[in-house]
Write a structure and sequence with these properties.
The structure is a single chain. This protein has 115 residues and is α+β, with helices and mostly antiparallel strands. Helix content is 30%, strand content 32%. The chain is elongated and about 65 Å long. The termini are far apart. The mean pLDDT is 86.
């Protein structure tokens, strides 16, 4: 182990399978963590996941009925960006998922959930 000068604040990043993970910590004189800020890959993946789910809906939602096929396609879109979400340990088709079709006034037209 390489030892350097003791510091009370540190920032690090790591590239993982889901994307970049940022860490920022501060400790006090007794090495107790007094601040921790993590920016995890799910945060970075949120925007592309939302776009992918929107595209799935545009391409595969016919009318207002949510089908099992649509749920499967949404699951695939999410897992493509973030396979390590807490629900990703389940078999395909068993991911905890809730999907709603909502009209412009906010009225729920159809809703399905599983998992």
């Amino acid at each position: 182990m390489v030892k350097g000068q003791r510091r009370e604040e540190g920032v690090g990043l790591d590239r993982g399978p889901r994307g970049t993970l940022f860490h920022h910590y501060r400790v006090d004189k007794n090495d107790q963590v007094v601040m921790a800020n993590l920016i995890v890959s799910t945060t970075h993946n949120n925007e592309p996941m939302n776009r992918a789910v929107t595209k799935v809906a545009q391409d595969h939602l016919s009318g207002v009925e949510i089908t099992e096929g649509l749920l499967n396609r949404i699951e695939v879109a999410i897992r493509a960006y973030d396979p390590c979400l807490s629900c990703a340990t389940h078999a395909l088709g068993q991911m905890a998922l809730e999907v709603s079709v909502v009209d412009p006034e906010g009225k729920v037209l159809d809703q399905k959930s599983r998992g």
